[in-house]
Specification:
The chain is mainly α and 170 residues long. It has helices at 2-8, 18-45, 49-60, 71-86, 91-169. The protein starts with a helix and ends with a helix.
C-alpha cells in the first residue's frame, strides 16, 4: 500500500542519503559494465555461439568441457597431412611442415590464452555477478522493505496525530 501510494504521489517517501544513493548508482553501473565485458570477452574467446551454449550447459551441469581443437591447430594438422602427401622432402612439403609446426604452436598458445583468460579474468567477473551482486541486490530489497515499513508507520502516526488534534479541537 505504501509503495503504491508513493508511486501515485499520495504518500511521502523517505529519501536515502545522497552518498548512499551515489553508491547504489555506482553499484548498478559496475554490474551493467561487468555483464557487458563478460559477455563480450566470452564472444572474443569463443566466437561460435553454439559452442558457447554447449560450454554454458557443461558448466551448469558441473561437467568438464571437452577440449576443442583450435582453428590454428586444425590448420596445422591439415598442413602436416598435406606435407606428408606431397612428400616431406619436396620444397612444398618442407614449407608445409615448417608452417604447420608454427601454426600448431600458435594454436597451442591460443588454447593457453583462452584457458588463462577464463580462469584469471572471467571467473572473478562471474564470482562478482553470482556472489557479490546477489548479496547487494538482496540487501537492497531488504532496505527498500524497511524504508516502506518506516514510511507506513510515519503515515499512520501522522494520521493518528491529526485525528487526535481534531478530537482535541472538538
Amino acid at each position: 500500500l505504501q509503495f503504491t501510494e508513493e508511486k501515485l504521489g499520495q504518500a511521502e517517501k523517505t529519501e536515502l542519503d545522497a552518498h548512499f544513493e551515489n553508491l547504489l548508482a555506482r553499484a548498478d553501473c559496475t554490474k551493467n559494465w561487468t555483464e557487458k565485458i563478460l559477455r563480450q570477452t566470452e564472444v572474443l574467446l569463443q566466437p561460435n555461439p553454439s559452442a558457447r551454449v554447449e560450454e554454458f550447459l557443461y558448466e551448469k551441469l558441473d561437467r568438464k568441457v571437452p577440449s576443442r581443437v583450435t582453428n590454428g591447430e586444425l590448420l596445422a594438422q591439415y598442413m602436416t597431412e598435406a606435407a606428408n602427401d606431397f612428400g616431406p622432402g619436396t620444397p612444398y612439403g618442407k614449407t608445409l611442415i615448417k608452417v604447420g609446426e608454427t601454426q600448431r604452436l600458435l594454436g597451442a598458445a591460443e588454447r593457453e590464452f583462452i584457458r588463462s583468460a577464463s580462469i584469471n579474468f572471467l571467473t572473478p567477473l562471474r564470482n562478482f555477478l553470482e556472489g557479490d551482486w546477489r548479496t547487494i541486490s538482496k540487501e537492497r530489497r531488504i532496505l527498500q522493505n524497511r524504508r516502506l515499513d518506516l514510511d507506513a508507520c510515519k503515515a499512520r502516526l501522522k494520521k493518528a496525530k491529526a485525528a487526535e488534534a481534531k478530537a482535541a479541537v472538538t
